[in-house]
Specification:
disordered C terminus; binds zinc ion; 2 domains; 1% strand; 353 residues
């Protein structure tokens, strides 16, 4: 078979054939299982080459049309060239089909002779035999043409599927090969992990800046909001970068880690502060009273009831704190949208790196 492979043109055809072989392998594997599929497909190819009277000229065409497709002699899924793919023994269904054909032939003879075969003169028998043979030949020819047509249609379908798969693979490869839109690093599907981490770090810093500005700024004075945004941004990047950030591929990830940490700490502090604000305290007191006034089991211990009321009050204070913070942030975003005040820039004041 080595001579055959030497003829295969290189580049895209090879990749396409690889998809086609994988498709054929998948189909065989579906019928007889993956462990036997490779051997079965290799045997199929060897068999087809051995059965070839003339040398193969167009290898690709031969593989697509003759070499790779399954050629069942009957209706059995296992059947390939009249052999079972799993056991490599001759196919029982094919034998049944041959039996069917023979009985069909005999039926044709009986019909033609009208049950009078033994009484017919030799001349008439020969004529009937000739006629039945011709009729049978036509039926067999039509059967064979139909099967060949089905085989070709299936081969064409498989070929089209292989083409589509290859196109998809090429598209995916092209997408993966795109350089990073920010730093130009090749093979990064348009965005390298370093730039992505850098972006995420910048997002966290922006959110951390907003937490401070939203709680501190006078939103009626947009120039003050802008000024405060810039100052806090510079400071926040300083805080993030005060940690030892390694040089090289992992640097952006470490930066992102510290930016996330700063954001989480600031959010926790802001929530703690807002939980001590007047509205939160009021809500906490209300919930505390309501909880104590709830009907309770008669044997309930006073200490447990007080602890439960305090627990509910704390939850209520935290809920109000979260709502207040959301409101403050929404107000800031709205003020910025209205007054076009500066938002923290993506890369951070003084450069993103
Ligand atoms: Zn068969
Ligand atoms: Zn990049």
């Amino acid at each position: 078979m080595a001579g055959l492979w030497r003829q295969i043109p290189l580049d895209r055809t090879v990749r396409w054939l690889a998809v086609l072989v994988r498709t054929a392998l998948g189909q065989v594997s579906h019928v007889i299982g993956p462990d036997k599929a490779e051997v079965a497909l290799a045997e199929r190819l060897s068999r087809r080459i051995a059965a070839q009277d003339t040398p193969v000229r167009n290898v690709v065409g031969w593989l697509v049309r003759r070499g790779l497709p399954q050629r069942p002699g009957c209706w059995s899924q296992q059947c390939d060239d009249g052999l079972r793919m799993d056991t490599r023994e001759s196919c029982d269904s094919c034998a049944t089909l041959r039996g069917d054909r023979q009985s069909r032939y005999r039926q044709l003879m009986r019909d033609a002779a009208g049950g009078q075969w033994a009484r017919l003169p030799q001349q008439q028998r020969s004529e009937i035999e000739h006629q039945v043979n011709e009729e049978y030949r036509q039926i067999a020819k039509a059967d064979s043409a139909r099967r060949e047509h089905q085989r070709r249609e299936k081969a064409d379908r498989d070929t089209a599927v292989a083409h589509r798969r290859l196109e998809l693979q090429e598209k995916q490869a092209a997408a993966q090969a795109r350089p990073c839109g920010m730093c130009g690093r090749p093979d990064t599907a348009g965005e390298c992990s370093a730039c992505r981490s850098q972006q995420l770090a910048a997002n966290s810093v922006r959110a951390a800046v907003d937490l401070v500005v939203a709680l501190r700024a006078d939103l009626t004075d947009m120039s003050a909001v802008e000024e405060l945004t810039r100052t806090v941004e510079t400071d926040t990047w300083k805080v993030v970068r005060q940690h030892q950030v390694p040089v090289g591929d992992g640097a952006a990830d470490v930066l992102r880690h510290f930016a996330d940490q700063v954001l989480a700490e600031r959010r926790a502090r802001a929530l703690a502060r807002l939980a001590q604000s007047a509205p939160a305290i009021e809500e906490g007191q209300l919930v505390y009273k309501l909880t104590l006034n709830r009907p309770t089991p008669r044997r309930a211990c006073r200490k447990d009831l007080l602890a439960a009321a305090e627990h509910e009050a704390e939850r209520a204070r935290q809920k109000v704190a979260r709502e207040l913070l959301d409101d403050f942030l929404a107000d800031l975003a709205e003020a910025r949208a209205r007054g076009c005040a500066a938002e923290p820039s993506a890369g951070g004041a003084g450069g993103g790196r």
